[in-house]
Amino acid sequence: MKEPLTQNIQDYLKTIYELGEDGDSASTTALAARLGIAPASVTGMLQKLAAATPPLVDYRKHQGATLTTEGERAALEVIRHHRLLETYLVTILGYSWDNVHEEACRLEHVISEEFEARIAAALGHPQRDPHGEPIPTPELVMPPDASQPLSALRPGQKARIVRVQASDPALLRHLDSLGLTPGAQVEALDYSPYDQNLTLEVGPAPAPPRVIGVAITRQIFIEIIK
Amino acid sequence: MKEPLTQNIQDYLKTIYELGEDGDSASTTALAARLGIAPASVTGMLQKLAAATPPLVDYRKHQGATLTTEGERAALEVIRHHRLLETYLVTILGYSWDNVHEEACRLEHVISEEFEARIAAALGHPQRDPHGEPIPTPELVMPPDASQPLSALRPGQKARIVRVQASDPALLRHLDSLGLTPGAQVEALDYSPYDQNLTLEVGPAPAPPRVIGVAITRQIFIEIIK
DNA sequence: ATTCTAATTTAGTCTAACCTAAATTATTTT
DNA sequence: AAAATAATTTAGGTTAGACTAAATTAGAAT
Q1: Cα-based angle B129, B122, B85 (whole degrees, multiple of 5)
Q2: Chain B partners within 8 Å of A169 (Cβ)
Q3: DSSP state, B204?
Q4: Closest to B131 (Cα-Cα) out of B85, B190, B198
Q5: E strand or H helix that includes residue A159
Q6: Is B95's CB within 8 Å of A114's CB?
Q7: Do B182 and B161 contact (CB within 8 A), yes or no?
Q8: What is the model's pTM?
Q9: Residue pLDDT, tens place only, A180-213
Q10: Does B200 touch chain A (CB under 8 A)?
Q11: Distances (CA, A) of A108 to A80, A192, B88, B126
Q12: Nearest residue to C18 via alpha carbon and C1'
């Protein structure tokens, strides 16, 4: 009954969680795209996860899947591992923020609860990872995050970057070079409704304005200042 | 051609290396016992490993297996990972020496070369792990080790413990409580040829003599002093 | 040299996950 | 409302790695 979940299943649950964060259920195709496998394979797995004891997902044909309480626990456990690992790799082992994702993806499935506890303690029980993503608590509660996408910022508004929802190394290096990292302040100078480009001043001091496309501004999350 | 080896295959190669360290080839049964699987399964895998391109083992029916150069490289890579990880877990993360084995066994297959390099650097490129086992160099050369089993020590001889070849947590805790850890000095006070028990004084100071059976003394390796 | 035993191999299954191709259902457009 | 398109599911097949049971071979003992 309490068989440990395979790494594969952990990846499915994690991905279903991430796709479901904005409220809706995770579709077969979206899962297939994220996991890099054929949609037919996803269908098979969702049927299996829904039929497991206890069930890990709620699944109805053509309706996609959402996590059960059990499934969510498992997903949050993996996500906690992943984000603690990313933090550890950057903070203690000196990795750069753009190449921790892959390593954490492999490690997240194999570390023990003791390992988790020890790195959390070594890091001083951090609340967020190097990309600003909140780290679930040891009790597997996801801290609330009220940030909104940078794409919603409008001229005259100032904001602080809270998190960057990206894992592609090249993109992360690009953002780093622009100064678009968690904690940075930005002010919207201009917005073009036609292409949704946002012109930003990044940082506190006299900085050259940057024009950023929506493909990027949708992946950056902010809190508006005052 | 350069497909990455599965974790399973890595475990086979590592185990074949360990069983072959004393010269002879690794038998089907010995492998099955170590890996906790049925002998028939081992036969199948050995055939596969011998048929791989490049071949990872030399295998002849009923003769057991030895590693090819390729197979040995892969084995040493895994062993280097394992021993560096054990060292890191004990030295940096504060694990006790008796419970690092399992964790390292899971991690050894998934860490990157970058991870390996960073923990090696953080540890100052150690030569031996917490049990005294030599750590293969980054070029995958196993450092020579001239130690001999404690079971060969005879009354009047003094020795320093170099390595402890054991992974069972209960045994390791027991050895720790006896002071039988790498670096410790021992002197043989008595030897019983009938049961091969060795009576030892452990440590430098006035210590109570300990009578140790051969099941233990064969797993501890020493260098005789002067 | 023969017999016995222990080790090993063969043969045939099983499970987890994946795949492709074909069939079906849902959704959008006409 | 019907047709076209897109999403999803079904069906059938593959691979890795394990299993059991039966057959064989090697080595030891008579």
Answers
A1: 40
A2: none
A3: S
A4: B85
A5: strand A158-164
A6: yes
A7: yes
A8: 0.94
A9: 999 999 999 999 999 999 999 998 878 899 999 9
A10: no
A11: 8, 41, 18, 26
A12: A41
